[in-house]
Amino acid sequence: MNPDLKKERDGASFDPEKIVNLLYGGPDRVKRKRKLESLALNDPDFQHEDLNFMSREQQYETQLKKSIMVVQKQEKHGIMGPEDSAHYVYNGAFKAMAGPFGLHTSMFLPTLRGQATDEQKDKWLKMAENYAIIGTYAQTEMGHGTFLRGLETTATYDPHTQEFDLHTPTPTGTKWWPGCLGKTSNYCVLMAQLYIHGKSYGPHPFMVQIRSLEDHKPLPGVTVGDIGPKFGYAGNDNGFLRFDHVRIPRDNMLMKYSRVEPDGTYVKPPSSKLAYGTMVQVRSFIVSEAAESLAKAVTIATRYSCVRRQSEMKPGHPEPQVLDYVTQQYKLFPYLAAAYAFMFAARAMVSVYFRSMERITRGDITVLPELHALSSGLKSLSSWVMNAGIEECRMACGGHGYSHASGIPSIYAEHTPAATYEGENTVLMLQTARYLMKSYSQSVQGEKLAGSVAYLAGVQPVPVAGRTRDVLDLQVLIEAYQHRAARLVHEAALQLRKEQQAGKDQPDAWNATSVDLVKAATAHSQYFVVKNFAARLADPAVDSSVRAVLTSLCQLHALHGVVNNSGDFLEDGYMTGTDIRQARRHINALMAKLRPDAVALVDAFDYPDGILNSILGRYDGNVYEHLLEWAKASPLNKTDVHQSYHKYLKPFLQANRAKL
Ligand SMILES: CCCCCCCC/C=C\CCCCCCCCCC(=O)SCCNC(=O)CCNC(=O)[C@H](O)C(C)(C)COP(=O)(O)OP(=O)(O)OC[C@H]1O[C@@H](n2cnc3c(N)ncnc32)[C@H](O)[C@@H]1OP(=O)(O)O
Ligand SMILES: Cc1cc2nc3c(=O)[nH]c(=O)nc-3n(C[C@H](O)[C@H](O)[C@H](O)COP(=O)(O)OP(=O)(O)OC[C@H]3O[C@@H](n4cnc5c(N)ncnc54)[C@H](O)[C@@H]3O)c2cc1C
Known about the structure:
Bound molecules: ligand LQNNLAPS, flavin-adenine dinucleotide
Shape: globular
CATH topology of the domain at 105-269: Butyryl-CoA Dehydrogenase, subunit A, domain 2
Mean pLDDT: 95
Number of strands: 11
Number of helices: 21
CATH class of the domain at 105-269: Mainly Beta
Distance between the termini: 54 Å
Structural class: alpha+beta
């Protein structure tokens, strides 16, 4: 063990195991988590050459082979449910979500479960759950991802044959991006525009076979392939798909909510947005993905910052650990705090999701708009912060952060698309804003608001300027966040109205106000996260040493947000210049207080080395010797003299020398 890391751990004010239990739901679940992770990490069948040293084809093949073994072993070991899979599959076996079966489990199966009738489930779900067929979720097209109503692929009902005719009318209508489509899937859930008797009914889901179950060749009329290399996701065959008048039976439309009768009669769903249910589910889960990826990057950068010694703080003294530089703490600790904040927010989001789904299943769709607004806002906020945080962690590791040996580039490449997929972040924040504007106007009309928007009922009066307040008090901070969100919603609503009064129609007024609207929706989401973090600490079951350190983190998270967005808090005089100055001082004091606990706080995320896959973030801190070992494994080091020397460099050098 590196002596610096040992010293850090010995000096912590709490036992990290207590936080591990808090984060993962108690000792039994932690035991299960560790068992599943180590089962995957120590399985010789899952060992292979570092993916960073492989070509894309090799990565795909390796991940496909592993995916198949994962399925077989999951069955053997009785591993089931999303939590088990998160530990065994995503963290343990893959260290990623982008394997060639990723879309089968994350979207294809959930869509069948959520959108198919009982008869359709009997027909397909068992086959899909048992991997007799592999599917994906094919919605996005080359020309349209965000604008679902603009999809071009058509499903035209023919009552004579009781079939749908699937067709891609234009190049831009080509399905583009669906994961696991290019080479792996033989089925997909296709989102296509439903046409009956020449009338459009909007996007609907259809179950479509795209490849032969005999030889895996594309079925007649289907053109399908891989979209080529991307920023990351090398092991995934994101694909393209086109249809040339492909016919499928009527009951291949997923008809849990809307139906087409044999004669072509369309039966409306209780809400047309129920067809978008899988997206809402995945958005709710992405908050957890964002929190975990940020936590991994912060773990690596924090441990490494205790091992790394650089420069002279005091002349003649030994080089300090870089984490002792307050600027380094300022880079890392706010993201450490954010990772905790989003872990708690993710748990809250998942339970809101399941609670809402229970009601929706019982036929109460009134909860859908709030679920959509909350999941859209939290998905966007968490993935934005995650992206900024991972990049900050990379830079905080200096040059070594840029190397794949740090593990950070892979974490970034694997998770950065969360800001884009499942709904582009700005677009989703505007969805949240739409709900806020509606709620606000209901409240202005005297309706009582409930749930996450109840606070919009009235903007709190601005306190008397110069009043002293303790900005370290979590209740004061929650009220400040609440006030800021309510005010920004109120002002965005006023601005929207002003734009309309100035003659703009509603869409132009909305566009003109959209920067304010995104700001308001972001503030609303941040308020939820801060309030939820503080509420988690109020639980009497939380151990006192844990409560102490997490309270500091919660204060840091909230204060950092105040300082970073100080204009919002100052603008209407709710906070004063003195408050902001105090907030800055408190941040410094909190960082000093958290410094001795930093390593224990990242240890408490409980990521073993096999999951972090990082030389810099090793638990034992033996970074330097392993860096060299890792580099020696690079394919370029297989021989002392690379063959290209003989082909190119040698004649070039010889010719140059001959000229002299
Ligand atoms: C405990 C277990 C822990 C386990 C942890 C595991 C960790 C794993 C975590 C995560 C797994 C991640 C796996 C990742 C793999 C994913 C790969 C990516 C897959 C994809 O990207 S699929 C494609 C996704 N595409 C999109 O998201 C498209 C985005 N666009 C839209 O959703 C919509 O078109 C829109 C939101 C932009 C709406 O457009 P608009 O034209 O305005 O809206 P209309 O359609 O007219 O709607 C009008 C009305 O409806 C409301 N509305 C819109 N959408 C919804 C909805 N989904 N639900 C409810 N309501 C909706 C809209 O707001 C309007 O309301 P209003 O009229 O104002 O009242
Ligand atoms: C790694 C990865 C995996 C994916 N997997 C799948 C999959 O399995 N299945 C699938 O169907 N799709 C998948 N997608 C596609 C993904 O869902 C879309 O890329 C995403 O929904 C964004 O849509 P877009 O690409 O059309 O972006 P665009 O909408 O074209 O966005 C471009 C820019 O325009 C802005 N913009 C667009 N509309 C508005 C608006 N109304 N108001 C303000 N600004 C706007 C956006 O904010 C953004 O800045 C995947 C994408 C990636 C990157």
